[in-house]
Amino acid sequence: MNDPRAATAIRLTGRDALSLLHRISTQALLDLKPGQSRATLFCDFRGRLLHRALVSVAEDGAVWLRRPDAPGAELAAFLDRHIFRDDVAIEDRSEMAPPEPTASEERARIRAGGARHGHEIAEAFNPYEAGLAADVHLDKGCYTGQEALQRLITYGSVRRELTRVSGAGTAPVVPADVTRAGETVGVLTSAAATEEAGWMGLAMVRKELVSAASPDLEVGGARLTLEPLPPACPAGLPAAKP
């Protein structure tokens, strides 16, 4: 629980540490017990993604935030800006920079549809587009971005969906536009060479095209094959679907 080797390892102490994270992030965290962990997201007022971290409570009561794919300084500064009269102390034990993933780890992440900082976890996207709806709790009270995320569900206005894609040839440099008949309909956010010929990736694509497994999508003039990911739903409202 006290291993600081992750790329981001931030230790919070003080009686308000867990309530601070509950107040400013998307997940319900107040019921976390020592030895338990839960992923949460930090968004701006528009509901756009800024950070994702795994929140853990240690046996000594300290609260840890970890993530393997981004350095910790920006997240630590974000937390610090939200501390006013709270009894919270921040200790950043992060490495200076995250390690680059090996090719096999990157392929495994893409197969699983896992979002990565700087790729799918970016200010251009919201949690539902990035396949992170399960990290959002819609019935826990106010937090930054809550109104925007609630509206997206209420009005069914999530326009893009994360999907696996694959293609022939060399993996494109990301980000890259996904096009259909010359029109931009999405963005390729991750790409990695496969063990055989070709490449696999993740892309944010217009929902109706993912649902139809549209066969005429391209990146850089090369045809894409789509493979939809399993749907994810936010917590708090069982019937809610993005």
Secondary structure layout:
Layout: E1 8-13, H1 17-24, E2 37-43, E3 49-57, E4 63-67, H2 73-81, E5 89-92, H3 103-112, H4 146-154, E6 160-167, E7 176-180, E8 183-193, E9 199-206, H5 207-211, E10 218-219, E11 222-223, E12 225-228
Antiparallel strand pairs: 1-4, 1-5, 2-3, 3-4, 6-9, 6-12, 7-8, 8-9, 10-11
Structural commentary:
Mean pLDDT is 91; it is low at 1-5. The chain is 17% helix and 29% strand. The two termini are 34 Å apart. A hairpin with a 2-residue loop joins strand 7 (176-180) and strand 8 (183-193). It folds into two domains: 1-157, Gyrase A, domain 2 (2-Layer Sandwich); 160-228, Elongation Factor Tu (Ef-tu), domain 3 (Beta Barrel), CATH 2.40.30.110. It has helices spanning 17-24, 73-81, 103-112, 146-154, 207-211; strands at residues 8-13, 37-43, 49-57, 63-67, 89-92, 160-167, 176-180, 183-193, 199-206, 218-219, 222-223, 225-228. The strands form three sheets. It has a five-stranded antiparallel beta sheet, with helices on one face. A five-stranded antiparallel beta sheet has the order 7-8-9-6-12. It has five helices and twelve strands. The longest helix is centred in the middle third of the chain and has 10 residues, at 103-112. The protein is α+β, with helices and mostly antiparallel strands and 242 residues long.
